[in-house]
């Protein structure tokens, strides 16, 4: 992990250097060139921002997708409903974010003035860790919060932050999750967990909520299998996206099927 961190930092430092000398029409160039009354972001600040955008945008989306798939495996009726009606995908992603989101704790805040929170007042000049864990299952905000329901009205959760701290990449994360989950359920409507539920390991992290791995067993839907009769296979050249034939062994019978 340390070596990967060092290599990525070295790469991003060189990339930022290039954007300073030869800026383009892109976000990193804007960060490297932006100034406010003569004050510019330092090299370390731009590299840190690039690192945050890259890593945060990757890990959180991975966790959103895997946590969503696991939630569906634990609620097969919801999986069937989503597979039967892809128009539910945007709402389903909102429910996955609420039900078991990819973040445990928001990034550190700092109070510039006293902040009342319920019956407590946080003094000024204090670092604050904001936990999202008790918010999204709040029964006062979400009826039956411990039940996964992809048909309930979406939104209202804080998995993507709020106000000026709202996640910059939230729209992209939602789009990625919709595409990934939609294509997964379309291609493999029958998904099974290829491990014992109790054996799944969650990453030890204060910030992130995600699994180390999510082993799945997938089955091709019968509607996409067309028996061809002969025991032959047709190899698919690299880059060929056409229908291909593959020999499968079903018990003591060998048949050739074609599927997209």
TrEMBL record:
Protein name (database record): Cytochrome P450
What domain of life?
A: Bacteria
InterPro entries, from UniProt? Cyt_P450, Cyt_P450_B, Cyt_P450_sf
The record's Pfam families line, in alphabetical order, gives:
p450
One of the entry's Gene Ontology molecular-function terms is: oxidoreductase activity, acting on paired donors, with incorporation or reduction of molecular oxygen
Q: Which family does it belong to?
A: Belongs to the cytochrome P450 family.
């Amino acid at each position: 992990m340390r070596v990967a961190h060092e290599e990525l930092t070295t790469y991003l430092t060189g990339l930022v250097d290039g954007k300073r000398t030869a800026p383009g029409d892109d976000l990193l160039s804007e960060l490297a060139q932006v100034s406010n009354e003569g004050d510019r972001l330092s090299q370390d600040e731009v590299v840190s921002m690039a690192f945050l955008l890259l890593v945060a945008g990757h890990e959180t989306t991975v966790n959103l997708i895997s946590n969503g798939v696991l939630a569906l495996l634990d609620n097969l009726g919801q999986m069937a409903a989503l597979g039967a009606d892809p128009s539910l995908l945007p709402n389903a992603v909102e429910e996955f974010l609420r039900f078991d989101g990819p973040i445990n704790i928001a990034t550190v805040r700092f109070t510039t003035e006293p902040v009342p929170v319920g019956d407590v007042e946080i003094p000024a000049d204090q670092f604050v860790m904001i936990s999202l864990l008790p918010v999204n299952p709040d029964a006062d905000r979400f009826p039956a919060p411990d039940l996964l329901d992809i048909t309930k009205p979406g939104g209202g959760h804080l998995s993507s932050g709020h106000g000026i701290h709202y996640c910059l990449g939230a729209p992209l994360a939602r789009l990625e999750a919709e595409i990934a989950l939609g294509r997964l359920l379309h291609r493999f409507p029958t998904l099974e967990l290829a491990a014992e539920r109790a054996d799944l390991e969650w990453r030890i992290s204060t910030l992130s909520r995600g699994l180390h791995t999510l082993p799945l067993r997938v089955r091709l839907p019968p509607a996409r299998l067309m028996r061809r009769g002969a025991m032959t296979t047709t190899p698919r050249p690299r880059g060929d996206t056409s229908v291909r034939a593959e020999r499968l062994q079903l018990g003591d019978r060998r048949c050739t099927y074609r599927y997209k």
